[in-house]
Amino acid sequence: MEYTQAEILQTVAMTEMEHLDVRTVTLGLNLLDCTSDSMAGVAQKAGDKIRRIATRLVPTVDEIGEQFGIRVANKRISITPVSLITEGLRGDVVQVARAIDDAAGTVGVDFIGGYSALVQKGATPSETRFLDSIPEALSTTQRLCSSVNAATTRAGINMDVVGHVGRLLKDAAERTRDQGGLACAKFVCFANAVEDNPFMAGAFHGVSEAEAVINVGVSGPGVVHHAVRHADRDLPLQELAETIKKLSFKLARAGELVGREAARRLGIPFGIIDLSLAPTPVPGDSVANIIEAMGFERAGTHGTTAALALLTDAVKKGGAMASGSVGGMSGAFIPVSEDAGMIEAAQLGALSLDKLEAWTSVCSVGIDMVAVPGSTSAETIAAIIADEMAVGTMNNKTTAVRIIPVPGRDVGEMVEFGGLLGSAPIMPVNAFSSAAFIRRGGRIPAPIHSLRN
């Protein structure tokens, strides 16, 4: 499909008035050829390849954004899960993390994701050592992001890993105590992780992907909020959904325009466009505000799961109309600290962890950028993760947890992370223990509907 002048002018108007940006252009990069007989060898090869392939990414995307008048908020890299290229090696895997982070700094990207492990059914001794390295890796680097896939619909839930992650998050939080537990904001635990996700902190370059691809993550909650807020208050819901769908079409077209042009100039194939509505702390750029504009006093009250389902479905339909390359997660993100409306709703008690868990069944991910008291036990954190993994495996969808036990803070206090990560109110967790369940370990078997052959 060709891009018309009218489309481009409409997009520029949305950019200027309604907080439209392309949230990220992400270079996915295969590092399977960076294996070596030593950690130092892997570190050297990985750093060299990132610097070689990504050297023109940031200036090229900046030029495109300036030319088209569309702000590209972040430039990022996703790489092959590092646990795969360090499998079987002895030594300190954190030196690989630091080399990757240093290379990301050299090429000027905002984040690099893929310090990751795919351990949904079991973990090798090498992968277990890799998991243990995550707190140090995240607390001693600037741009590096990490993820663990702990569950899939076909494998079930690896509860040994879920319990392990609970302990890792406590360690990572303590190592960055003076930053409010910031290391935890760079870590995601997934069920059914996708291989072409351009968004951080969970992005990695899947083993089924090409050598290098350009993936794009669109934003646009401000555009959708503006339209919903100005719609007739008595507009039937199916017509409201149609309005959102048409806007999502335009958002997807704008994102694909930027992505395909970046791919052309860099000589790298275009991969996917992820349609997820990704909020920022800027007022008006909020998924919670979209929900409220549909007719709710506050996000999180009764009926808002249905509203979020409408929003997510309309976004997907609009994107599917606009592009044959839709991928990633594509829906609506609900990160508390990154969404001004979510922050307000949580402070007022309208939005709880339980409601966020319910929302997970219909949106892109799940418990995202949620701050909880630093005294929260590792077992309780693991139990929160387990609930999200269950939602993902039973519903055959991607779910995720990004949770921060903030050292020294308690319910009602605020923690500042800065930038796109925003600030978060400390939310209460259930006071009753899940420890005995988590200590059982083992694996929750795959659901019966996984037997689809």
How would you describe this protein?
The mean pLDDT is 91. Helix 9 crosses helix 11. The longest helix has 30 residues, at 237-266. This protein has a single domain (1-442), classed as Alpha-Beta Barrel (Anaerobic Ribonucleotide-triphosphate Reductase Large Chain). Strand 3, helix 6 and strand 4 form a beta-alpha-beta unit. It has helices spanning 5-17, 39-54, 57-68, 82-85, 94-107, 125-139, 159-175, 221-229, 237-266, 287-293, 304-322, 340-347, 353-360, 378-395, 435-440, and strands at 22-29, 72-79, 111-118, 144-152, 156-158, 187-191, 212-218, 270-274, 367-373, 399-406, 414-416, 423-425, 443-444. The two termini are 36 Å apart. The strands form two sheets. Strands 1, 2, 3, 4, 5, 6, 7, 8, 9, 10 and 13 form an eleven-stranded mixed sheet that branches. Strands 11-12 form a two-stranded antiparallel ribbon. The protein contains 15 helices and 13 strands. It has 453 residues and is α/β, with parallel strands linked by helices.
Present the secondary structure layout.
Blueprint: H1 5-17, E1 22-29, H2 39-54, H3 57-68, E2 72-79, H4 82-85, H5 94-107, E3 111-118, H6 125-139, E4 144-152, E5 156-158, H7 159-175, E6 187-191, E7 212-218, H8 221-229, H9 237-266, E8 270-274, H10 287-293, H11 304-322, H12 340-347, H13 353-360, E9 367-373, H14 378-395, E10 399-406, E11 414-416, E12 423-425, H15 435-440, E13 443-444
Parallel strand pairs: 1-2, 2-3, 3-4, 4-6, 7-8, 9-10
Antiparallel strand pairs: 1-7, 4-5, 5-13, 6-10, 11-12
Fraction of residues in β-strands: 15-25%
Report on the biggest sheet: 11 strands, mixed
Radius of gyration: 21 Å
Q: Helix/strand-derived class?
A: alpha/beta
From the coordinates shown, what is the CATH architecture? Alpha-Beta Barrel
Q: Distance between termini? A: 36 Å
Task: Give the overall shape, derived from the CA principal axes.
Answer: globular
| Low-confidence segments | none
Summarize the helix and strand pattern as letters: HEHHEHHEHEEHEEHHEHHHHEHEEEHE
**What is the residue-averaged pLDDT?**
91
The CATH topology assignment is Anaerobic Ribonucleotide-triphosphate Reductase Large Chain
Helix content: 40-55%
- Count of individual beta strands: 13
Number of domains: 1
| CATH class type | Alpha Beta
